[in-house]
């Protein structure tokens, strides 16, 4: 592909539990087998993302042990808030995005923690707003799990209370006048007296705004609730579309919701999750992924592929294509939108092992091949209209992120698809967002909560 004429894409890198997309990535030669508890790995990851002039570095938070802890550390991680503080001091420009769940944390805890990090990083923080559906995580904090409606109702209230808290100390209230002894204008710093059905906070917050005002607000999720929440309450959204066509439809529907909320879709970015496996040829990339599958649990992946294709394939020769007698009965499972891709791969005659290696059962689609071909696919998605952004996840860990930054990023930069230098210093500036501090700018567009 040639030069781009559509502006530049936004890219965030992700390194959760110190590793990449594949459960067996921690066993890959050269990776730190204890990366999940090594803060230096995360600091180096953020520095790599900054080296590539990416927009941000993202850490998820799963505060519960995973069911497959016997074979993978993917559910084990250091508290991302601790890591964010360390990364903020070791970098100067890269945006830093962390999850803090509305189901677990109280508004003041989120507001104060995120504002502290935003000040420490000089305006580079992003808050990923999510609800927690993992019952094990919820039971680590509470005696029971909330009903579906309560979870969403609480999320709305926490979001609003956090933004009101951020706005309770407005720009200009901090004076720092040594001569007069005037530290701050207390007439401008006011309580919020927020009282909702699920959460309350008196306020005000005890810290001033950062150079970007408040952290950029991210969210993740699908369905109409996810669209509406993103359209009215977020600056950016994480997506996990399995195919290009799905990604285009996702962005079209979200754009419509954003317009209906009275906002401009051009000021919003969807970061589509993309796994990458980089090698000197597509054949070598596929072999790399096959080797990674062997380091994980291929039998469980084969079982799930059986579920996706609606046919029994466990026990079949994994190094042979699915027999025609079964393939004729195969149907994509409508309950899993990744199933169509798995079905298409099976119909092309790939062996079961090769089908799995292409990544149809991964949470994100996988781009495998040479640096040039991966750059081509990213450009294709970008120019097709999928929301302008990507959340890149390597297949193993730090080494695969380094491969992306060192081999794919220069190609994208040469094509004019990525910046070669930062033009701003805050995350909001990286994303093309204006300075913002508080709830006021959303008031005309968001449902009102109870303020007493």
From TrEMBL:
Protein known as: NtaA/DmoA family FMN-dependent monooxygenase
Domain Luciferase-like, chain residue ranges per copy: 46-385
Stored Gene3D superfamilies: Luciferase-like domain
PANTHER family reported for this sequence: ALKANESULFONATE MONOOXYGENASE-RELATED (PTHR30011), C2H2 FINGER DOMAIN TRANSCRIPTION FACTOR (EUROFUNG)-RELATED (PTHR30011:SF16)
Binding positions (FMN): 61, 99, 148
Family that this chain belongs to: Belongs to the NtaA/SnaA/DszA monooxygenase family.
GO MF term list: monooxygenase activity; oxidoreductase activity, acting on paired donors, with incorporation or reduction of molecular oxygen
Pfam families: Bac_luciferase
Keywords assigned by UniProt, alphabetized: Flavoprotein, FMN, Monooxygenase, Oxidoreductase
Stretch forming the signal peptide: none
Keyword Flavoprotein applies: yes
Superkingdom, taxonomy of origin: Bacteria
EC code: 1.14.-.-
Enzyme's top EC category: oxidoreductase
């Amino acid at each position: 592909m040639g030069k781009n004429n559509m502006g530049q894409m936004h890219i965030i890198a992700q390194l959760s539990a110190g590793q990449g997309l594949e459960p067996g990535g921690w066993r890959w030669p050269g990776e730190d087998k204890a990366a999940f508890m090594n803060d230096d790995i995360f600091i180096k990851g953020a520095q790599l993302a900054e080296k590539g002039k990416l927009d941000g570095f993202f850490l998820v938070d799963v505060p519960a042990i995973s069911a497959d802890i016997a074979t993978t550390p993917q559910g084990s991680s250091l508290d991302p808030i601790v890591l964010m503080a360390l990364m903020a001091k070791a970098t100067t420009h890269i945006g830093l995005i962390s999850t803090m769940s509305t189901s677990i944390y109280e508004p003041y805890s989120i507001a104060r923690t995120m504002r502290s990090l935003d000040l420490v990083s000089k305006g580079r923080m992003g808050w990923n707003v999510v609800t927690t559906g993992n019952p094990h995580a919820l039971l680590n904090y509470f005696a029971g799990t909330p009903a579906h409606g309560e979870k969403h109702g609480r999320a709305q209230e926490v979001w609003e209370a956090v933004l009101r808290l951020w706005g309770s100390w407005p720009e200009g209230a901090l004076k720092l006048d040594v001569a007069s002894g005037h530290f701050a204008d207390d007439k401008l710093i006011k309580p919020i007296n927020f009282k909702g059905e699920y959460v309350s906070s008196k306020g005000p917050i005890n810290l001033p705004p950062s150079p970007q005002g408040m952290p950029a607000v991210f969210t993740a999720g699908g369905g109409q609730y996810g669209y509406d929440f993103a359209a009215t309450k977020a600056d950016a959204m994480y997506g996990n579309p399995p195919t290009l066509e799905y990604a285009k439809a996702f962005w079209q529907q979200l754009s419509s919701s954003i317009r209906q909320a009275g906002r401009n879709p051009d000021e919003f970015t969807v970061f589509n999750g993309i796994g990458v496996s980089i090698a000197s040829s597509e054949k070598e990339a596929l072999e790399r992924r096959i080797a990674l599958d062997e380091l994980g649990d291929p039998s469980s992946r084969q079982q799930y592929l059986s579920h996706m294709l609606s046919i029994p394939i466990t026990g079949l020769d994994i190094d042979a294509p699915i027999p025609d007698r079964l393939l004729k009965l195969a149907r994509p499972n409508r309950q899993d939108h990744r199933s169509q891709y798995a079905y298409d791969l099976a119909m092309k005659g790939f062996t079961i092992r090769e089908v799995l290696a292409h990544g149809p059962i991964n949470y994100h689609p996988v781009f495998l091949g040479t640096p040039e071909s991966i750059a081509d696919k990213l450009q294709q998605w970008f120019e097709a209209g999928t929301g302008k952004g990507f959340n890149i996840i390597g297949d193993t860990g730090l080494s695969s992120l380094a491969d992306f930054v060192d081999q794919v990023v220069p190609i994208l930069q040469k094509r004019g698809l990525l910046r070669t230098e930062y033009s701003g210093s805050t995350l909001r500036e990286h994303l093309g967002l204006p300075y913002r501090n508080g709830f006021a700018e959303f008031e005309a567009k968001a449902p009102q909560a109870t303020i007493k």
